[in-house]
Amino acid sequence: MPEIIPFKGVAFDKAKVNVAKVVSPPYDIIPADLLESLYSRDEHNFVRLILGKINPDDNSNNNRYTRTRKLFDEWLSQGIFRQDKEPAFYIYEMEFLHNGDKKKVTGFIGLCTVEDYFTGSIKPHERTFRGPIEDRYKLIDATQSNLEPIYCIYSNKKISSLLSSGKRDNVFEFEYDGIRHRMIKVSDKKILSAITDEFSKTNLYIADGHHRYQTALEYSKFAREKNSSSGKLPSDYIMMLIADINDNSVLILPTHRIVRQLKIPFNSLLGRLSEYFIVEELGNFLGSAVSNLESYSDEHAFVMSLDGKFFLLRTKDNFLESGDNTKSKEWNSLDVSIFDNLIMKEVLGMHSHDDKDVLYSRDAKDAVRLAGKEGAAFLLNGTKLESVMKIADNKEAMPHKSTFFYPKPLSGLVVYKY
Q1: Given this model, what pLDDT does residue 264 score?
Q2: CA angle 383-388-393, nearest 5°?
Q3: How do the domains of the chain map onto residue ranges?
Q4: CA 325 to chain CA centroid, nearest Å
Q5: How far is CA 255 from the centre of its chain?
Q6: Which of 75, 208, 308, 415 can pair with 80 through a Cys bridge, CB separation 3.0 to 4.6 Å?
Q7: Contact, 145 vs 417, CB < 8 A?
Q8: Distance (Å, rounded) from C-alpha 331 to C-alpha 399?
Q9: pLDDT band at 254, cuts 50/70/90?
Q10: Coil, strand or helix: which one is 153?
Q11: Do 262 and 351 meet the contact criterion of CB atoms below 8 Å apart?
């Protein structure tokens, strides 16, 4: 099982910066326009470390990674960053409204030993690609730090109870994009030790950060080869935000699909859909259509937007007959898998497609707009946490664009320096 330990975090000195202005979203969800906005927001915005700019004359001695190392060292020497003197766990709360309901995700940031996936105690659900790994590897090597935590989930009510006991020191509290963020430091040695012991029997599931985890694993192996020590090295650990799913506030939002051009007539499309789905016309009001879809969140249902009209699609009992026989029943029962297997392949005849054929949007209104008059939008419910955990337990990878965990933890609250 993973070893979870406290650490001496490096964080912004709130006497020198406005924390709400210097934090940023995670590096991999920052579009170009937001990147420029973050750069101009404050000279100490954390995005300058996690997404340094690339210059035309970059070389091996002067590039985005060497400049990040220099900037990081400057912020440390200037006192912009300060390191805690005692190890701690950092409780992180995100309080927000969702569909009118008040929710609060509570997790904590600590260090976790990196280990190969085959051990089975740290469970992924996504495939990784070399480009992002190589980028983050260079960043770790340059800064000798984990600048951003990966995001994991677990299920153990005793750990959450331990975190809420003992002395708690408030570190930060501020609002960012409609979400209330709060960080609390726990440094009571008895509580820290009890939490570490409890995690010796608790599995972890990666929510966000598969590429960063794989990067840390590869860097740990590299550092181990260079060091003859038999003890733990700083690079044998990765910084994690770990949240308990039992508070029912960790959400997975849906990512809707937009087929840009339909190649079959309207009546033929409805006929093909009726072979696999119970088809019900819903009218032309988006809000009502979405509400209908959400009422079937415990079934397998979709809403299709086609030329200004909405149709509810509910699977018939034969939906698994067209599944991928190399995958598990759990994998084939995911809504995103049903969309690929039934709608894309069986109904539309699109057995292979790429991002030119299918667009993705997390906003239902935007999805309908993108579909236009020649395409169709297919609205989905969010993937369930239990489904993600089952797929991870099966050592399978989720289909493309299956999960969007919400809310996203901010970057820049605390850093793990080797």
Answers
A1: 87
A2: 160
A3: 4-250+406-417, 254-381
A4: 28
A5: 13
A6: 75
A7: yes
A8: 9
A9: very high
A10: strand
A11: no
